[in-house]
Amino acid sequence: FAGSEKAFPKGFWDGKTVLEVGAGVGVVGIAAALASEKISVEISDLKHLLPLISKNIAANAVSDRAKAID
Fold it and tell me: pLDDT, tens digit, for every residue of 22-38?
């Protein structure tokens, strides 16, 4: 949905910062990061989930614009 041009016109996410709180595995934050190469996404959850979130960020090749934070 974050990449839908009907809901969000091209360039909508450019320059934006997104914070996902209570992310679980980070799927929503990762989807936001995939929507634009010019977005900054911070994904947060309990400390023990941060390694999994970081792994998922790397697996989806969005490490340049997304990070796991506590």
Answer: 999 999 999 999 989 99
